[in-house]
Amino acid sequence: MDTGPSVVGRVGSLLRALAAREPDGVSTTALAAATDLPRATSHRLLSALRDEGLVERDEATGSWHLGPECFLLGAAATSRHDITPIARATVLRLARETGESAFFSVRRGDETVCLLREDGSFPIRSHVLHEGIRFPLGVASAGLVLLAFLGERERTSYLAQARLEEQYGAEHTATRLRSRIDATRSTGYAVNPGLIVPGSWGLGAAVFDAHGEARWALSLTGIEARLAPPRQQELGELLLREAHALTGRLAPRRGHR
Question: Which segment of the chain is annotated as a signal peptide (predicted)?
Fold first, then answer.
């Protein structure tokens, strides 16, 4: 028999998986695979969520989407948690000054969630990141820089159990990640040299809260020719300046955690 916490955990997993796939939607089978739930369990929970307006189904395609009640709940939480209006000007400025795609992401547990995306003027763009997509800490430049600036004990514990190489390849073993973390802490910014999609590079810098914890990240993505050295250092330093300035603007919101 299901217990309360396990049901809540399963529902949370389904809603997060749906959010990561909007606006395209996703099938019951794909949701079950993404959340490691039996298909029958997934369908039963999704049907219950549909009754509450938290999800809806496109009967023509069979795809599930977040429902209108999620929008209303999100709107109610905006005044406490939404810091994207403060970050938006920074993301726009990065995209305009560099010509690359710029992003703002937040740490949520052991993941990063992309909150903002703004494309620059360069015609070749990366589509690795989009608003709502999630990656584990250590994956992509935002995930790497946030992992790099965790406290040592928390970082060590995470690396001991993450097993990122199983999904993201050999460059994400704990040993390889430690080397990239050292490099990130040395320069202050993270580099993703096409490890998710070949040829699509990323740079990331951490944004800290009023308690000195790395909670958000600014990042840029683009093709290798534009993010590799020697331009890489210039872009990395720009990211660090913008991240430092944004940290200062977010500091007064220390009660909004």
Answer: none
* Cα 246 from Cα 46, distance rounded (Å): 39
Of the residues 26, 50, 73, the one at which a domain ends: 73
* Interval 18-35: pLDDT, tens: 887 777 888 999 888 888
Residue 217 confidence (pLDDT): 97
User: Total domain count for the chain?
Assistant: 2
Residues 6+ apart with CB under 8 A from 4: none
d(CA 102, CA 124): 14
Which domain does 21 fall in, by range? 4-73
- Is residue 95 a contact partner of residue 119, using CB atoms and an 8 Å limit? yes
**Are 235 and 113 within one domain?**
yes
What are the beta bridge partners of residue 105?
Answer: 114, 217
Handedness of CA 182, 174, 162, 27 (dihedral sign): positive
For position 181, what pLDDT does the model report?
Answer: 97
Model confidence pLDDT, tens digit, residues 97-134: 999 999 999 998 899 999 999 998 886 766 667 888 89
Question: Model's pTM, two decimal places?
Answer: 0.71
What is the residue whose two structure tokens read 């703002």? 104
Region class of 37: left (phi > 0), else alpha (psi between -120 and 50), else beta: beta
